[in-house]
Known about the structure:
Blueprint: H1 2-18, H2 20-39, E1 50-55, H3 63-80, E2 93-96, H4 99-108, H5 114-123, H6 125-128, H7 144-150, E3 162-168, E4 173-178, H8 179-182, H9 192-199, E5 206-208, E6 215-217, H10 230-239, E7 253-261, H11 272-295, H12 299-302, E8 303-308, E9 324-329, E10 333-340, H13 341-361, H14 382-392
Parallel strand pairs: 1-2, 1-7, 2-3, 7-8
Antiparallel strand pairs: 3-4, 5-6, 9-10
Amino acid sequence: xxxxxxxxxxxxxxxxxxxxxxxxxKEIFSILESNFLFGAQTPELGAGRxxxxxxxxxxxxxxxxxxALVRLERQLQELSGNKxxxxxxxxxxxxxxxAGGFLAAALLARGMTAEQARDVVxxxxxxxxxxxxxxxxxxxxxxxxxxxxxxxxxxRDAAKPLLIPCxxxxxxxxxxxxxxxxxxxxxxxxxxxQVCAAACGVxxxxxxxxxxxxxxxxxxxxGAAVANPTSVAVTHVLHNKQEFPFAAGASDLIVLxxxxxxxxxxxxxxxxxxxxxIASACQADMVDQAVSMAxxxxxxTNYIRxxxxxxxxxxxxxxxxxxxxxxxVLFRGKKLLPQTNGERLDGVAEQLVQExxxxxxxKTPTVLIKQSATPRTSSxxxxxxxxxxxxxxxxxx
Length: 397
C-alpha cells in the first residue's frame, strides 16, 4: 500500500508546482478513477479497442442524437468508400435509454439506416419525448409506433450486444434489458416493441419476458431514471470477459456518447413533466462528468460526448452540429470546446474506420459476440427476423 501511495504522489507532485490545487485535485481524481474503477491493467497488445455507442433519451426526444447518427453514417461511408456502410457496422455495442433505446434497437435489431431511424423519431416527436397526447399521429395508441417498427423481434434478435436500461417500480431498482442475458434464457428475452415503448414512457407499463417468468413495471418517465446509459455500457464491457476478453480499461475503449439538446427543456416551468426532464438532464450530466473523469488522459480521444450547449434556443437538431461542443469539467460544470459537434463526430468517424481496417488485418478477435445457446421456442424465430428485415427495410413508419 505504501508503494502505491508513493507512486500516486510521484504522479501528482509536479502539478502542485505548476498547476495549483484545482489541477492537483483534478489529476488525483482522474488517477484514482482510472486505477481503482477501471483497474491498472496492461491491455493485450494488438487486440484493438472496443467501440461503444451510448445514446441518451434527452428532452428533445432523441432529435439531436438522430441527427448526429445521420452525419456519422454519411462520414463513415465517405471515409470507407463504402456507400452501404452503416453505423451498426462500426460499433461493437449500443446502449440507449428512452428515445435512445429505440435508436439503438432500430440500428442493431431492425437493421435501419440512420436516416430511416431519424425519420421515425421526427414523425413521432411527442411519442419519443414522452409527451404523446391528443392530436398526435398515434394519439390513442402511441405504442403502435414501436409495434410497426419491430413486429415480433425480441432483444435476442439484435445483431450485436444491446443494452436498454430502465427503472423497475415493482422492485424499486434499475433493470437492464440485455442481449447477453437474452441469448442465455427466455426469462430475460423481451419483445423489443414493449421494451422501447416502456423506455419512452409509453404503454405498456408492465413488460413480461417471452416465457412470462420475468415481469417488471417500468417507470413511465421517458428515460428520466436512467437518462445517460454510458456508465451502464462501459461497466458491461469491462465486466463481460466472454464477449470483450481484452477490454481492461479506458485505453481499450472508444466511446461515443450522444446526448440531447439542453435548449429543448423549459427550466422555468414547474409542471411535473418539466421537473422530470430537469432531473433527467441532471442525471445525464452527472454520468457524463463521472465517466469523463474516469477516462482521465484518454478522454480526449477515447470518450467523446456530443450534446447541444443550450445557447441557440429553438435551433434544429441539425443546427446543433455546427455549435461548439461542450466538455464536463470537474467541479466547474461545462466548458466550450474549440471544435464543433460536427467536427468532433468527423473525428470519431476517422477513429472508427481506422479500427475497422486494423481488425481486417489482425487475426486476434477484439470482440466475441455471444451466440444463442439454444433455439428459441417462441414464435419469434430467426426466420421471422430475416423476413421482417428484408420485406420492411425500405419502409419509414
